Structures are given as C-alpha cells and as structure tokens.
UniProtKB/TrEMBL annotation:
Mg(2+) binds at residue 17. It catalyses: shikimate + ATP = 3-phosphoshikimate + ADP + H(+). It comes from Paenibacillus silagei. Belongs to the shikimate kinase family. It is an enzyme of class 2 (transferase). It is found in: Cytoplasm. This is Shikimate kinase. The gene is aroK.
C-alpha cells in the first residue's frame, strides 16, 4: 500500500484546500492546511503577519512549518500559493511525497478571488495582481509530479483524477 504524502501546490484559488479536504477524507489521511497551521500557531491572520513583518517574515514561517509538516506519511498537505518560492522547498516536497500542481486559467482565478479580502498579495487591483503574480510564477509549479488544470473541472473530478494518478 502506498502511504506517501500528497502535497498540493499551485496559484491562489486553484482549489488546493477544498481538494485537499476531499482527498484526505477519501484516503483517511491527516489533512494539513499549511496556511491554517501557520495562523493557528501564530495566533494572527496571514494579513497581519504580512502587515507586521512583511512577506519575508511570512515566507520564513511558511518554510519552517512546511518542512516540519512534510515529516511522516499518510498526510494530504495543502500549501499556500507561494510555498514553492523559497529555495529548497520544491526539492523537499518532491522528497517527501507525491506533488500535485493545480492550475487554472487567469480569468478563472480572477473570478474566483473577486471580493476576497484575505489575500494580502492581491490588495489593490486584484485582477492586475493576479496577472503579474501568474507571470512571475510561470515556471514555479512545473516541478510537480503531476499537474491538473481545474478550469473546467469541479472539485470531485479534480480529486478523482489525482487519486488515479497517485495510485497508478
Ligand atoms: C499566497 C497564497 C495564500 C497565502 C498567502 C500568500 C501566495 O494561500 O499563503 O496569502 O503567495 O500565493 P492560498 O494559495 O491558499 O490562497
């Protein structure tokens, strides 16, 4: 039996948290939502961490929590969209599990994040911010073992596809 962790990476609003919850339930694995672990431990929101220490402070907490959470087996780990950015994080994810990148078209992401107040990187003109972040991260998610474009799929379809690939 395959006990490898499943690690979900990808741009904001590609469904990592929702799909992660479905996979964890199906597999009876522990669900780890990295952003939730960070805010729980810090006792403050992601927006507050960014406001008080800047993006760098958030990234170093994120990398430390990621490395800790990757230890062990039988976990589904949903990461924040920028968890792939710090040097070394991609390698450590590949070492500790099956890495799945979720993608979606730019328009889909813009539509999904509209009205969202909880993502500090999208403050201001969210559509422009999404476009520029997607451009900056064009290559950032390519390291994954498998990639799923969620644009035309619902969360159940995405989860089933991941399970097929994981068990293959
Ligand atoms: C971020 C994505 C967010 C969160 C933080 C930064 C990013 O998570 O970690 O706001 O850099 O893409 P989601 O991908 O779950 O929105």
């Amino acid at each position: 039996m395959d006990d490898r962790n499943i690690i979900l990476v990808g741009m904001m609003a590609t469904g990592k948290s929702t799909v992660g919850a479905i996979l964890a339930e199906e597999l009876d694995y522990e669900l780890v939502d990295l952003d939730a672990v960070i805010t729980g431990r810090e006792g403050r929101s992601i927006a507050d961490i960014f406001a008080e220490g800047g993006e760098q402070a958030f990234r170093s907490i994120e990398s430390a929590v990621l490395q800790e959470m990757l230890q062990g087996e039988r976990k589904v780990i949903s990461t924040g969209g920028g968890a792939v950015l710090a040097p070394g994080n991609a390698e450590v994810m590949l070492e500790h599990g099956f890495v799945v990148a979720l993608t979606a078209s730019e328009d889909t992401i813009i539509e999904r994040v509209s009205g969202d107040e909880n993502r500090p990187l999208l403050a201001g003109n969210a559509a422009n911010r999404v476009r520029s972040i997607m451009e900056q991260r064009r290559e950032a998610y390519r390291f994954a073992h498998c990639t799923v474009d969620t644009t035309e799929l619902n969360v159940a379809e995405v989860s089933q596809y991941i399970l097929l690939r994981y068990r293959a």
